[in-house]
Amino acid sequence: MGHISAQANPQSLGFTEKLKSWLSWSWTYVCFVWFGMVLIMVYVLWSPLKLQETLTSASVFLNTLTPKFYVALTGTSSLISGLILIFEWWYFRKYGTSFIEQVSVSHLRPLLGGVESSSTTGLFSSVNGEAEPRPSVSECKVWRNPLNLFRGAEYNRYTWVTGKEPLTYYDMNLSAQDHQTFFTGDTQQLRPEDAVMQKAWRERNPQARIRAAYQAIEINHEQTCSAGSVIFSKKSYVLLAEEEATTITEAERLFKKALTIGKEGFAYTVVLIYSGKDMNLLVYIKRRLAMCARKLGRIKEAVKMMRDLMKEFPLLGMLNIHENLLEALLELQAYADVQAVLAKYDDISLPKSATICYTSALLKARAVSDKFSPEAASRRGLSTAEMNAVEAIHRAVEFNPHVPKYLLEMKSLILPPEHILKRGDSEAVAYAFFHLQHWKRAEGALNLLHCTWEGTFRIIPYPLEKGHLFYPYPGCTETADRELLPSFHEVSVYPKKELPFFILFTAGLCSFTAMLAMLTHQFPELMGVFAKAFFSTLFAPLGFFADKMESFMPSSFWHQLTQI
């Protein structure tokens, strides 16, 4: 039976595809056939249905209408089209597409035999234009920001000063899921402190999270000391360091307490952590301590901690600790060490990021930017080093085209989110927030970027269809970035979208009907003459067609046809 159904499925699928192709082909000509049939039916039924008398009475009725009726008609049309225009504009600004166009493509196009857009989602065009399979990894996967700020010491201070929330609920919800996944042990039995800490991460109110962390600490103190209670005390102090600490110094103190707690008299706890059960917790604490040292100016200490962490846990490359290391080395101006880190991580087999691509471009631009002059380069041409720098900038801009506007201060910066979308505006904000100072420190680097970054778009004229050095630019970044970035930030969109046709159409319709309403109100007699002349001209071809049909066909034929 399985073989029979397997053989029958291709036949049924083939019949379905043929039916769809036939419907698609037929819809191309059905409009012309339908229009011709309507004309023939109108002519055939002209006498039996007394259409001439109906048309005469309708014209008499229209002649008796006052200009106020036409003013009301055109005014109502203008109002309705204006409301549609407002809704279309709001929908386009919020979702980046036209509502009418989306409904047409999603619901009407399949009925008319159109090709479904999902059939091409698995392909992309390479440089030579051939279709190749796209990677199975989701293009719009959201990643944890390696340089994310501290909520209590940085994000909350911004809220106190400006009254604005720098983090979206979607971003904070992702962080709560990360903490629950990242810090949950592999024990199947849920202890009371486990439930308390899971609830603490899920709480939306910061004060509720802090109270839950203190509650977990009290539960651990009441119980007999064990490895599990010590670990959950660490997690409680991690939450307090992230949420309650109002300064980086206080956050560092709480992280150090979370790192050292349980070592007195519980040496086996350290062994337990290193065995893998709660290794994530240890890595998180040490990484945040390194970030605290970097923010407090102890940069060499931070670099040593990050190097030790990468050496101690080499398999945790997905945490992107090397991006923290690159930023700290750039602050030390240790460009040789930066190049060594890039040589290891800027590999074709490893995933890229804005930090990797733009740091590589910065190093190459720094070598030539101090003597670079656009006028001199246009006269003599680019040298080999300058060409390498320009190509590195083009490579970086192709990967993330949103970054240059922030580096060149053409757009205002905001606090980076806790999660970023690679190649999106959120990643550009996070990179520029921490690396703008490094570009400014390299003399002439921003000038070279300003002169060359827009040339990338001439290399890739159709970024959503073809890529040059990377895959085609994903088309879903705008939607994800709007979820990650706060509402007061204007999300950067690439490629820049043109206004949909229906917005332009409704705008023209609204303006035209409003103009007709105003002219009809001001000049009723003149507009009446104009309307009569317009409709008589409009229906002239129909009368001409009817006369030709009467002269071409014998009258007896039409009489017998109407009798049938």
Give structural notes:
Belongs to the ST7 family. The chain crosses the membrane at residues 27-49, 69-92, 499-520, 526-546. With 564 residues, this protein is mainly α. It has a domain at 345-523. The protein is 68% helix and 2% strand. It is built from 26 helices and four strands. Helix 3 runs antiparallel to helix 24. The longest helix has 43 residues, at 2-44. 31% of the residues are buried.
Shape: elongated
Q: How many strands appear in the DSSP assignment?
A: 4
Oligomer: single chain
The number of distinct helices, counting runs of at least 4 residues, comes to 26
In helices, the fraction of residues equals 55-70%
Q: Strand sequence of the main sheet, in spatial order?
A: 1-2
SSE arrangement, N to C: HHHHEEEHHHHHHHHHHHHHHHEHHHHHHH
Uncertain runs: 1-13, 112-138, 264-277
Strand content: under 5%
- Which structural class do the helices and strands define? mainly alpha
Largest sheet composition: 2 strands, antiparallel
What's the Cα radius of gyration?
34 Å
Summarize the structure.
By secondary structure, the chain is mainly alpha-helical. It has 26 helices and four strands.
What key attributes describe this structure?
single chain, elongated, mainly alpha, two-stranded antiparallel sheet, 564 residues
